[in-house]
Design brief:
The structure is a single chain. The chain has 207 residues and is mainly α. Helix content is 73%, strand content 0%. The chain is built from nine helices and no strands. The N and C termini lie far apart (178 Å). The C terminus is likely disordered.
């Protein structure tokens, strides 16, 4: 503690001294506040940076969403391509199997056997081919001349000829459609004009 005599010598308790100290303290406080407060330019720069950061954040989110969508699309396309490749492979295997069966089918008709049936009468050849296994008979018909084969098939029973035609064209036979109930009430066909439908003469009936 400063004694009163020393304080009087230093002038601590003088009014001028106290005023100068008060002014110095006020100036120091003002300088501190000025340093702590941001400049107007700095405030405007900070305000300008916020929308930019916001827009940048939105752009990044949109880019991420676009990349995710593209990835999902590519994944779906890849799966679809794999499915289509599998289908094509199955079709190729099916065609190869059909080709092998077709070659084996044609190999059943030997040239010598084909020549024998080509020289036979159509009705006799039709009887033998009817009793033969369908694939073998169809193979022989495919090696015959078209005119001879058609004549032989014309002598066959229609159902048998249709089955052989299905084997030749590799077409499965169609299911037989049952007749409609009203089919039985249809009018009978008109008599043919040939000898089979000729009416008997009076002389024939009287005899």
């Amino acid at each position: 503690m400063i004694c009163p005599a020393r304080a009087r010598r230093l002038g601590v308790n003088s009014p001028n001294r106290r005023l100068r100290l008060s002014l110095a303290a006020a100036a120091l406080l003002a300088a501190t506040q000025a340093t702590a407060e941001p400049k107007p330019g700095d405030v405007s720069k900070a305000d300008d940076g916020r929308p930019t950061q916001y827009c940048a954040g939105i752009a990044n989110a949109a880019a991420d969403a676009r990349l995710a969508w593209q990835k999902e699309t590519l994944t779906a396309l890849s799966k679809d391509i794999e499915v289509r490749i599998g289908q094509l492979e199955a079709k190729r295997a099916e065609y190869e199997d059909w080709l092998k069966r077709r070659q084996a089918f044609l190999a059943k008709a030997d040239e010598s056997v084909t020549a024998i049936y080509a020289k036979m009468r159509p009705d006799s050849a039709a009887q033998q081919l009817t009793a033969m296994e369908s694939e073998a008979a169809a193979a022989i018909l495919t090696r015959l001349d078209a005119r001879i084969a058609s004549a032989i098939m014309n002598e066959m029973e229609p159902g048998r000829a249709a089955r052989l035609a299905n084997v030749i064209t590799n077409t499965p036979p169609k299911n037989v459609v049952p007749p409609r109930p009203d089919a039985a009430v249809k009018a009978p066909p008109e008599p043919r004009s040939d000898a089979g439908g000729r009416r008997p003469q009076d002389s024939e009936t009287s005899g």
